Amino acid sequence: MTKYVEMRTYTLLPGKVPDYFKLYEAKGLPVQTKYLKKLVGYYATEIGPLNQVVHMWGYDSLDERADCRARMTADPDWQAYVGEQRKNFVTMESKMLVPAPFFKVK
Predict the structure, then answer these.
(1) pTM (two decimals)
(2) 3-class DSSP state for residue 99?
(3) What H or E segment, with its residue span, contains residue 17?
(4) 90-105 b/e with 16+ CB inside 10 Å = b?
(5) Per DSSP, which regions of 15-105 are E strands?
(6) If 12 and its partner were Cys, which of 16, 26, 98, 104 is the partner (CB 3.0–4.6 Å)?
(7) Stretch (H or E) spanning 65
(8) CA 32 – CA 77 distance, rounded (Å)
(9) Mean pLDDT, to the nearest integer, of 54-64?
(10) Domain chopping of the chain, boundaries
């Protein structure tokens, strides 16, 4: 059962959302889904603060998150991807969300 959802928001340089998605789909997603099994959503902002990408991943525990992220971070393919993607970033923000008692993360 998913007890936590991590929401990450990346603010990118203006006009870089398509470049981010192209590189992520080709090199980031295949590595990330080896380690993070519960993708909740992946979006780009259309209204409000622009040039943002928001993605959410579910975890059963904070220990599971720490373990999955440590293994992913150690992967040379992930390190290479992050090195390429870094040029698109302005800021990164991460929040841990706890679902309301009546909501079940799918």
Answers:
(1) 0.91
(2) coil
(3) helix 17-23
(4) eeeeeeeeeeeeeeee
(5) 39-44, 52-59, 89-97
(6) 16
(7) helix 62-74
(8) 10
(9) 96
(10) 4-97
Q: Tell me what the pLDDT averaged over the chain comes to.
A: 96
Cross-strand pairs, 5: 58, 97
Amino acid, res. 49: P
Q: CATH number of the domain at 4-97, please? A: 3.30.70.100
| Segment (H or E) for 5 | strand 4-12
| Unique residue bearing structure tokens 């590189």 | 23
105 pLDDT above the threshold of 80: no
Residues 80-97, mean pLDDT to the nearest whole number:
97
SS3 32: helix
CA distance 83 to 56: 21
Contacts of 99 (CB under 8 A, 6+ apart): 2, 3, 5, 105
| Number of other CB atoms surrounding residue 10 within 10 Å | 22
Tokens representing residue 84 in the block: 């390429």
Is the pLDDT assigned to residue 106 strictly greater than 80?
no
What's the gap between Cα 72 and its chain centre? Answer: 12
